[in-house]
Amino acid sequence: MARRIRNLGALVEATATGRLDQVAPDVRSDQIAICVALVTGPGGPDGQKGYPWSCTKGEPVEIDLKYMRRKGIQVIPSAMTWSEEEQVFKSDGTRVAFLNANVTAKQGDRPGEIADRLRNKLLAAHDNGKIRVIPREDGNGNRLDLRRDVGSHYRKSEELFPST
After folding, report:
1. 84: phi > 0 → left, psi -120 to 50 → alpha, else beta; which?
2. Does domain 37-159 have CATH number 3.30.200.20?
3. What's the whole-model pTM score?
4. Dist CA 147 CA 56 (whole Å)
């Protein structure tokens, strides 16, 4: 969100000095961002259903940060902790992390097409195991799950409100 606000500093200062009613946010309309929640999927020692029901906890989280940086994907940790003893992140179930990607749209770009590219980038990171919770029962698997339709509202909006 901070990248979309051009005058964030002025807004923070106005908040601190009690003048927020005098400063209007200058929001960029040329930014498109997609964010997906990576949640604990089904499975585990007790046959857990996965988020939002019962979740497996304490499994290692593996993140290829070099890949994420190269692809321009931000990883926002949520329900994970660092095990100093094992030197790994561990999932505590629920919403483990969020993946975010954004881009500045150029004149003539269609938001739906941009959103599709961003969504596919995030899905590829998940599907290719660049971020995963390693299941106890399958060291090569990935316990993480996510919605695959995030950002589809950009396409719907283009269908409902075609540009003139």
Report:
1. alpha
2. no
3. 0.80
4. 19
